[in-house]
Design a protein that fits this description.
binds heme C; mainly alpha; three-stranded antiparallel β-sheet; 3 strands; 3 domains; about 5% strand; 9 helices
Length: about 270
């Protein structure tokens, strides 16, 4: 049954490839990625077959991020050696690495181009033990629906990036007893603590320029620790907290001696 389904979908791909070859009108082909040339990814170009399809011109993270810039920013790790065996339904690439096509059928057509029939938590548990998630502060709830934190929720009155909206979808309701809100001035209020309200949604570059007039100073973006993210240039929950991680809610770096604060604030 499974074999039949796989070969049927492969046949479709090959037929589509032939159609494309014949007409040379790439964007008339209704297979993801619509409009791209075989040679953009496959060494064999138009002569790509089932046997040589694994020979790609670069790592998939590189090939795919041309069109999916955000897919790697806050996401499940990709293009790495798993160092353990994973189910054959989720194949590693020729180097033995977990990569995009481990979870995705690149030329598929199902929702999310996901391999097989499993979604959400069920998909995660194909490769991870339940204990992997029960160790997490939120038991994995915040990451099990997606391979990538780029889903946006309803907007707020103040500008906030999609990742912060994802966090707020639980914490503005007080998830886990931790109520976190964004007030009308765009300040994050960690209500569970006495910590200062901190702005989010602020454009870091603009704040830097404004700071020069006010005598406050910020370090240049290029000098910041790579884990301090500024989605679309904006201060976000993910500037201070990890997003897609085993350590739910952990700070991106220790704040001992105000290190995290001083990563951006020069004084
Ligand atoms: C954006 C990059 C990209 C483009 C463009 C692309 N492919 Fe692929 N293709 C892949 C990746 C990645 C795989 C999975 C490789 C692996 O399994 O190691 C794949 C797999 C395949 C397979 C194996 C069956 C499968 O679905 O896994 C065939 C056949 C194939 N591609 C044909 C083509 C043809 C023909 C074209 C042009 C019409 C094309 N591809 C365009 C990236 C691409
Ligand atoms: C030439 C641009 C382009 C490239 C290269 C590309 N994609 Fe896409 N991809 C798109 C577009 C456009 C969509 C949305 C429309 C669609 O579903 O076809 C999309 C959709 C997707 C989706 C989501 C489908 C859904 O239902 O939500 C996944 C997953 C995906 N791509 C994975 C990949 C992977 C993995 C690679 C690399 C092997 C890749 N893409 C390379 C353009 C591209
Ligand atoms: C461990 C599994 C896994 C790996 C590895 C993975 N993804 Fe995904 N990806 C998912 C899941 C799960 C979804 C959500 C699918 C759904 O429910 O519609 C998803 C969704 C997407 C989407 C849809 C838009 C979004 O951000 O939600 C894109 C685009 C995408 N993946 C691209 C990629 C690319 C490019 C790579 C490699 C760099 C990759 N994925 C590696 C599991 C994975
Ligand atoms: C195809 C197998 C596979 C699937 C499916 C999969 N993972 Fe993973 N994941 C791995 C491997 C391998 C690692 C490396 C660590 C390990 O061996 O557990 C990993 C690592 C991780 C990490 C650690 C990242 C870090 O460095 O902090 C998280 C978090 C994670 N996975 C979450 C998920 C979630 C959530 C899902 C479902 C959306 C999922 N995984 C689906 C194979 C998978
Ligand atoms: C699906 C709902 C959900 C989402 C989305 C979510 N969280 Fe949580 N979070 C929880 C729950 C539940 C807890 C409770 C943990 C406990 O009971 O100790 C928690 C706890 C925390 C903690 C405290 C951790 C600890 O060990 O004390 C931090 C920090 C945190 N979350 C930050 C974030 C950030 C940042 C985001 C966005 C990247 C986010 N959360 C997204 C549900 C969520
Ligand atoms: C400027 C940095 C910064 C930003 C931005 C930020 N946080 Fe925090 N957050 C912290 C620090 C520092 C702590 C204290 C952590 C500790 O003591 O281990 C904290 C603690 C928390 C806690 C634990 C409970 C509490 O109130 O102490 C939660 C939950 C949390 N943050 C969620 C969020 C969410 C959701 C966002 C985005 C809406 C966000 N944070 C934005 C720095 C930040
Ligand atoms: C990702 C970079 C970044 C980090 C990390 C960061 N800040 Fe900020 N902070 C900013 C930006 C940008 C502003 C906005 C300045 C403006 O609006 O002109 C700001 C504003 C503030 C303000 C408001 C006063 C003002 O200058 O407008 C305070 C107080 C503050 N931060 C304290 C902290 C503390 C305490 C920490 C550590 C827990 C911290 N910040 C971590 C970037 C950061």
């Amino acid at each position: 049954m499974l074999i039949n389904r796989i070969s049927a979908s492969l046949l479709l791909i090959l037929m589509v490839a032939v159609v494309q070859f014949d007409t040379q009108i790439a964007d008339a082909v209704d297979v993801h990625p619509v409009g791209a040339l075989c040679a953009d990814c496959h060494l064999a170009g138009d002569a790509t077959t089932l046997d040589n399809a694994y020979e790609l011109i670069d790592d998939q993270g590189v090939l795919c991020s041309g069109c999916h810039k955000d897919a790697l920013a806050v996401a499940h790790p990709s293009d790495f050696s798993p160092g353990r065996s994973i189910p054959a339904d989720y194949p590693v690439d020729w180097k033995g690495d977990v990569t995009c096509s481990t979870c995705h059928l690149v030329h598929g057509s199902k929702r999310g181009l996901i391999r097989g029939d499993k979604y959400g938590k069920e998909l995660c548990l194909s490769c991870h033990e339940l204990s992997f998630f029960s160790r997490m502060a939120d038991t994995g709830l915040s990451i099990q629906q997606v391979g990538h934190l780029s889903v946006s929720k309803e907007a707020l009155a103040v500008p906030v990036d999609d990742y912060s909206l994802h966090c707020l979808s639980c914490h503005s309701d007080g998830a886990g007893g931790f109520l976190v809100e964004v007030d009308m001035s765009g300040n994050v209020r960690h209500n569970g603590s006495t910590r200062v309200a901190h702005p989010i949604g602020v454009d870091y570059g603009v704040a830097m320029e404004r700071g020069i007039d006010r005598g406050s100073q910020f370090r240049p973006v290029a000098a910041l620790n790579k884990k301090v993210l500024l989605p679309n240039g904006m201060v976000s929950c993910l500037s201070c907290h990890e997003g897609y991680s085993e350590k739910h809610g952990a700070l991106v770096m220790s704040n001992a001696g105000s290190r995290l604060c001083l990563e951006c604030h020069d004084r």
